C-alpha cells in the first residue's frame, strides 16, 4: 500500500492529497508565477525582441517578471533566444544546471526550438535535445505579444500542481548532449 505524502493530513485512504497540502501548493504556485526572475541566454536576433518586451511599451513587469538577472544562480526562468550550435550545447546545459529548482525554460523562436533554417552540421536542432523546455514560442522572430502569451502559458503551468509533479519527473530523466 502506498505511503501517505510526508506532511499531508491523510485521513482517507482514497484521498491522496489533503485540503491543507493543496492549499499550500496553490499559494506557493501563485507566488512563484507572479515573481519570475528571467535569465536571458540570447545568441541572435530573437534576443532583440526580448529587449522590446522589457521596455515600457510591452512592460514585462505587468507579469511580475521584470527582474532580469545575468546570473543563473539568481534566476528561475531561462529564456533561450537565438541559434544554438553543438559547441554551445554543453555550455547551455551547464548554465541550466546552475539554476536552482524550480526552474523553467522558454524556447524563443524557430532557431532555439528547431534549429530554424540552419539545417546544417553545426546547429542544434532544438534546445530540447539538451534541456527540458516548458513553453515554445513560434516565429522568426516572435513578436513581443507572443512572449507575453508564453509567459501567461507558463504562469498557468506553474499554478498547476499536476504539471509541476509531471515536470519534476521529466526533469530527472537523462538528457543526452550532442
Ligand atoms: S528564429 Fe529568426 S529571428 Fe530568431 S534567432 Fe533565428 S533567424 Fe534570428
Give an overview of the whole structure.
The protein has 178 residues and is an alpha/beta fold. It has a single domain, classed as Rossmann fold, CATH 3.40.50.12280. Helix content is 37%, strand content 10%. It has helices at 19-33, 46-54, 89-97, 109-114, 144-159, 161-171, and strands at 38-42, 77-81, 104-108, 135-137. It has a 4-stranded parallel sheet with strand order 1-2-3-4. The longest helix is centred in the last third of the chain and has 16 residues, at 144-159. It is globular, with a radius of gyration of 18 Å. The protein starts with 18 loop residues before the first helix and ends in a 7-residue tail after the last helix. Bound molecules: iron/sulfur cluster. Residues 44-46, 82-83, 109-111, 116, 140-141 line the site of iron/sulfur cluster. Iron/sulfur cluster binds next to helix 4.
